[in-house]
Structures are given as C-alpha cells and as structure tokens.
Amino acid sequence: MTLTPGRIVLYRLSVQDAEVAREIDISAKADEIVPAIVVRVWGDTRFSGQAFLDGVGSIWLSQVEEGDQRGQWQWPTRQ
Q1: Which of 3, 32, 39, 72 is the most exposed place for a label (fewest CB within 10 A)?
Q2: Residues 50 and 9: beta-carbon distance below 8 Å
C-alpha cells in the first residue's frame, strides 16, 4: 500500500501520547492502538496527522515512523 493523505492507519500510543491524552481528560494507555488519519506524508514510511482517541479528543502526530513499537504506525489488517 502507498501512504497518502487521507489514509487511515493504526497508531500505537507512546507513554508521552498517553500523558497528553490525560491532560485533556481522555483515558488512554501506552501501547493502546488507535486509528490515525494521514495529513502529510514524509518519504515512504513517515507521516504527520491526527490520532483519534476514545472520546472527544485527538492528538497531533508529527513525522511518525512505520513499525510495531510505541509511537509508530502500521497498516490495518484486512479481514
């Protein structure tokens, strides 16, 4: 698949992401996987965009790298 603006990917929250979420009164934990929408693409595997949290909040992601660790994104699996 090609990373392009508007695509939805899965993002694994980092410890810092969970702390930011708590600051806006959203319950989130590091390692939680949430949907994110790509706004700007940086190369083949990095993007900036919004991660959507459970509730009325979202957090901005800046130049996130593809991978399976905290603070990284992956393609959703097709079922």
Answers
A1: 39
A2: no
